[in-house]
TrEMBL record:
Ranges annotated as spanning the membrane: none
Domain GS catalytic: 125-451
Annotated organism of origin: Metapseudomonas furukawaii
The UniProt record lists the keyword Ligase: yes
Protein name: Glutamine synthetase family protein
Length: 451
């Protein structure tokens, strides 16, 4: 279940080894995930990257982290329009310098972050997760994590701004009769296999491919990882490479939560188990009492973390839909209708599968919220509500719109303490203003109904 994390203590050696292996690469994209889950950064000549690896300072504007989905900035506290837009230090993330196979010309990419610098940005998603993991490490708790990401393929060209089903590369038929048949994997094998290959080249342990229920919908799983930051890195890098490979094949790949109202949405499923310093699964102790406590903590905080799990207006459309998309906070053993599923496993691999987040959520923040909920549950030591296996009506209501959700998140003391009050303020205000900005448009439907 666990994979050992590879350490790269010498950044300069890593860059020089990369240059020797890929002499045709002239530029490297230095990238970092912002609050909405998009990469920002700069393209560096490879010789300048070597200087950064040797110790030259690396700085980017602090407020890049606060970019909205469309790239704009919102006034948030003293940030953005009252702080002079200062630079903030970043560092290279060891082990992430990899080749890019989906661009027209040879290119490399490497993750950067503010966490671990002399002035980490409190609201940078990777830094938020790093603080949660450090807190657990001080308690002798080590999470093991695996992400599963669903996504849709579309035709590369839109039809009057609307997505079109992808076409079978062999017979040109639309993939409009969705099912989980293995033949769908064969029809799209060229793009799906290259998606796995590209992810593997980025160091992502992508493996199993599944045809999902939606038209053009698939899922690719990752291996379990004993480094929470690396597990979230894998999810972020996978989204980038998957989109790039799809375009190379004349398709679009999207992690949008609910692209079709009549088809299943796309989720980000996160498997988490907790181990002590001796490698014992903490959730399996005392007849699985810690597992139940962790579930109770996750369920208690779930209604107050909805802006993280459902990161935009579209993501809320996914809940209470056709199949396997809960409308209340719930749990169950081997039950895919539950927000928190307990897969069948032995004591060594006992874990929760958190199924609520949309595929377009920020993986660093999703994992940080899940771990904070589990930690809270272990501390509170309360039993959860009845599982769905015993009561199909069991559940806790959670917000179904962004404005209600940010109000519930911003005022919750455990969420503020667990994720950081400065982050919670910034994140909630970012989501609140983005939602109002999104709604500030008169749609064609409004004219049809009310003109």
């Amino acid at each position: 279940m666990m994979t050992t994390t590879t350490r790269y203590p010498d950044l300069l050696s890593e860059v020089r080894a990369f240059r020797a292996q890929y002499p045709e690469v002239r530029y490297v994209d230095l990238i970092c995930l912002d609050i909405p889950g998009h990469f920002y950064g700069k393209r560096y000549p490879i010789d300048m990257l070597e200087k950064v690896a040797a110790g030259s300072p690396l700085k980017l504007p602090q407020n890049c982290v606060l970019l909205g989905t469309q790239g704009g900035l919102y006034p948030i506290g003293d940030y953005c329009f009252a702080d002079g837009d200062p630079d903030a230090p970043r560092r290279l993330v060891p082990g992430t310098l990899k080749p890019v196979r989906w661009e027209k010309e040879p290119l490399g990419q490497m993750l950067i972050t503010s966490d671990g610098t002399e002035a980490p940005i409190e609201f940078e998603p990777r830094e938020v997760l790093a603080r949660v993991l450090q807190r657990l490490e001080r308690r002798g708790i080590r999470p093991v994590v695996a992400f599963e990401l669903e996504f849709y393929l579309f035709d590369r060209k839109l039809d009057a701004g609307l997505p079109r089903f992808p076409r079978d590369p062999l017979c040109e038929d639309e993939d409009d009769q969705p099912n989980m048949h293995i033949e769908r994997l064969s029809r799209f094998s060229s793009v799906l296999h290259e998606m796995v290959d590209a992810a593997n080249e980025q160091g992502v342990a992508a493996n199993v491919i599944t045809a999902e229920l939606g038209p053009g919908q698939f899922e690719i799983n990752f291996g379990h990882c004993d480094d929470g930051l690396q597990a979230a890195d894998w999810a972020a890098l996978f989204c980038r490479s998957t989109r790039g490979v799809a375009l190379k094949h004349g398709l679009r790949a999207s992690f949008m939560s609910k692209p079709y109202l009549e088809a299943p949405g796309s989720g980000m499923h996160v498997h988490v188990s907790l181990y002590d310093q001796d490698g014992n699964n903490l959730l399996a102790a005392e007849e699985q009492r810690p597992l139940r406590h962790a579930v109770a903590g996750c369920l208690e905080l779930l209604p107050h973390c909805m802006p993280i799990f459902a990161a935009n207006h579209n993501a809320f459309r996914r809940y209470g839909a056709m199949v396997n998309a809960a409308s209340r906070a719930s749990w169950g053993f081997e039950d895919r209708d539950a927000c928190i599923r307990i897969p069948e496993s032995d004591g060594r691999n006992l874990r929760i599968e958190h199924r609520l987040a949309g595929a377009d959520a920020n993986p660093y923040l999703v994992l940080a919220a899940i771990l904070t909920g589990m930690e809270h549950g272990l501390d509170a030591a309360r039993e959860p509500i009845a599982p769905l296996n015993d009561d199909r009506t069991s559940g806790i209501d959670f917000p179904k719109d962004m404005l209600t959700a940010v109000a519930a998140m911003g005022s919750h003391p455990v969420v503020n303490q667990g994720l950081g009050s400065e982050f919670v303020m910034v994140y909630c205000e970012n989501k609140r203003q983005e939602y109002l900005d999104f709604m500030n448009e008169v749609s064609a439907r409004e004219y049809r109904w009310y003109l």
